[in-house]
Amino acid sequence: QELCDKCDFEEVAYLVLNGELPNKSQLKKFIKQERSERKLSKQILNDIKKMPRNAHPMDVIRTCVSLMALEDKDTKDNSPKANMRKAMRIFAKTPTAVAAYFRTRKGKSIIAPSKKLSFSENFFKMMFNKVPDKEIVRAFDISLILYAEHSFNVSTFTARTITSSLSDLHGAITGAIASLKGPLHGGANEAVMHMMKEIGKPEKAKAWIENALNKKKVVMGFGHRVYRTGDSRVPTMKHYMFKVAKLLKKEKYTRMYEILEKVMLQRKNIHPNVDFPCGPTYYMMGIDIDFYTPIFVMSRITGWSAHIMEQHASNKLIRPLSKYRGAEVREVMLLNQR
Q1: CA distance 282 to 285
Q2: Among 56, 150, 185, 194, the one annotated catalytic
Q3: pTM greater than 0.90
């Protein structure tokens, strides 16, 4: 909450990667480095143009990070300095790849990144060829802060497991993206908006959620494996979702939000997670639903990279054991005896 109140996303990105909030000179240097790395090669841009237009953007972004590995001179170098250089490149280039596919899929020309705009402003410019109201940009920035790092979730654990074999940072982030795609992890924000679109309007929300609960359906955007009494990120994101809705005169989504939240608490005592306010916030900003999880990627690259570098710094192979439950020992019969 304090980071959201007092910092921009770039400051939080620096914090996650370096362990401390930056002073003015450190932040200036960090921003300059990030902005200098935003461009994608012509080869990768051409590859994005050739990708199927019905592909899921998460598959495209996962592939783009793999392609970045082919061009990065530090790919095989797992030293701390090389890892930080690679992390900054992936962090800077991924929004460019997301926006490039967003526009390519719509048959529009790709917009090059700007060195004059903040991380969030630049993303909107590359997506829509304009920067929206500062309150919209701030709400987007807040979502990135809240998504930047979140302990040993599935994708982070995947990244650390891959790293523990002494694989490289690009490979670990590629695996993390594949893990994040699932609807029980990052894809939940997409599922929330599909649910709201299915409900249609606030007047139908109560009946919809009651029916879903009566039929024991899974309601996306609620519950968390760690937060049993409520996701600590929700109040902040909810506040900004409501600000965006009021600004854009799309308050039907906030009314729908309140009804769904109230019924879930009354019936199941289950609280929303951060994906619940994030989904509609992105939708109101004009972002296609299947691009919500790639936005999650843009932010979480910082957290994944920090975990990967920490794993490399003090590595031990992650090799869990499983307890076998199955048939007893059997004699192998020759083929003509089976």
Answers
A1: 5
A2: 185
A3: yes
